[in-house]
Amino acid sequence: MVDQQWAVDQLQAFVAKIEEMAELYRTIHTIGSDRPEAEDFEREISELEDELCRLEPAVQVVMDAVDPELRNYQRFDPDLPGSVGGISWTERWFPARRAALRAVGLHTVGAEAKRRMQEDSGRTSALAADGYGGADFELVWPRELFVREGEALIAHAGQDFTQQCEWLLTEAFAGTSAIDAMSENGSSSDFWGSDPLSNALRGTRKFLSRLVENAGQLREASVRTPYWSQRRRATVPSRLDMSAVAREFVRMVDSFRLNGYFGRAFPDICVDDHDGVDVDGGDVLQQMLGISNLRWPLHAAQLLELEDAMFDVIEALHDLVARPRSRSFHSYGGCGWHYSQFAIEPGRALYRWRVNQLLDRSELGLRLADDGEDIGRLVAVTDDARADLVTRLANQPPGRTSDRVRHGIALYRARGSTEHDKRSAILVLAGIIEERRQLLKDNLVKKDEGALFDIANNFALRHQDLKQQRDYDPAFLDWIFWWYLATIELSDHLLARPAS
Questions:
Q1: Is pLDDT above 50 for 80?
Q2: Nearest Cα to 161, choosing from 200, 211, 191, 213?
């Protein structure tokens, strides 16, 4: 029993260090590799790799003793360079991690018995019962986007469904656990029918359907709690300046580009397509933005040299990005991946999400609008409560009033909006409130209703003559805009109430 416990301890320590290393990699990706604290994390990763290499021989012996098949896992070779064929050190440790977890299960009560006990006790979720929960199945996409893309793939499943599913899981999840689980389900023999391909498709579709249906239980990648020394120092991470944002943005765009997200706008020409016309991304962006000599792939230094170039490019690429739902590998002549079946909305949604994650860490005070007339355009950041108010009103069904509200919001929150733009936005909202004056008069205290129009009429907003008061701080415009917007939402609720 003591020897058995020692074996389990070795395996669990092995798994824990791999997970810790993966977490450190995710943290570096989140904060940016150019941050000073990233060096500390990289040092910890190096130490963990040394510890894993010391543990690995004992773990291999334990695995051989538990189940000879476990010896076939892909072993880590510390003498290889840090990245081989685009596979990171962390990813090359994952097969060893899965084998160690399986050995732990066999060394205790067995994986299947453990799963059934958890189901019977009700202590685990539907996904965790099948081993599809926790850090192994961590989303690096917005959960809603994974659900939408999963449902779209299931609804239009074809002969290339398995390949498309693998591509979706590659993009949406950290590590390879989701793909490995899909392969196990697709290769199982639990399904009726004699056609192996049909069996595999059914197994894969069932697996993806289960993930989509239980997506609410999947863990989303997030910024981890600071480590011990950081908590003790109680240091506040510094905000990224313009130079750091430019560098991180270029890296992000390169990732999108290498994954085919600009293949619809700038298609790569196959080596076998002798008649294909190459489209230079720099030329397309130059025509869209009027910026001469813009380079593609992007260069951070150039984006910083040209006034507003980075902001213009951020918005332009939102209009050009599209997610390829299918890809195939062409090995001849080093051609590489070919991407197809481009979907615009999911591509833009993922682009906005990742750009906003970057901008939220910066000192710029901007983000890409997720809704409204100005969706995909940089807007000024506000607090969560007011952002939620904008989202609710911007997503109202199309109509004369809701269209005007969206136009007012777009005028007000546009990047670089002037005092005149904000006045115009307030006048749009004031017009809507004027139309609902009787409704407000019937439901509000008389003085409250009168104050709404007194401000609009007497503070140089709606009229421009000597009677108007002009000597006030421009911050007044912010206050009145949000007051009017909230009043419109209030009047929406009053209109929606059933007649008494």
A1: no
A2: 200
Q: Kindly give the residue spans of alpha helices, DSSP state H, lying in 108-226.
A: 111-121, 126-129, 143-155, 161-172, 177-186, 196-213
Q: Which of 19, 17, 80, 89 is nearest to 54 (CA)?
A: 17
Is there a contact between 356 and 378 (Cβ–Cβ < 8 Å)?
no
Q: Is the pLDDT of residue 85 over 60?
A: no
User: Tokens 């685009």 label which residue?
Assistant: 86
In sequence order, what E strands does 334-386 have?
336-343, 366-368, 378-380
3-state helix, strand, coil in the chain (%, to 5): 65, 5, 30
User: Which helix (H) or strand (E) element contains residue 323?
Assistant: strand 323-330
Q: Average model confidence (pLDDT) for the chain?
A: 78
Mean local confidence (pLDDT), 347-366: 95
Q: Using an 8 Å Cβ cutoff, are 154 and 141 in contact?
A: no
Ranges 274-278, 285-289, 335-339: which has the least confidence? 274-278
Work out the burial of residue 460: count CB atoms within 10 Å of its CB; fewer than 13 is exposed, 13-18 middle, 19 or more buried.
middle
Enumerate the β-bridge partners of residue 175. none
Pairing assessment for the beta strands 366-368 and 336-343 based on DSSP bridges: unpaired
pTM for the predicted model, two decimal places: 0.65
Cross-strand pairs, 342: 324
Whether the Cβ atoms of residue 212 and residue 151 lie closer than 8 Å to each other: yes
* Paired tokens of 304: 């910083």
10 Å CB burial of residue 81 (0-12, 13-18, 19+) is exposed
219 pairs with which residues across the strands? 138
Helix (H, G, I), strand (E, B) or coil at 266: coil
Query: What CA–CA distance (Å, rounded) separates 328 from 27?
Result: 31
Torsion of CA 301, 306, 312, 317, to 10 degrees: -40
Specify whether the CB–CB gap between 129 and 115 falls below 8 A.
yes
Select from 83, 81, 61 the least CA-distant residue to 71.
Answer: 61
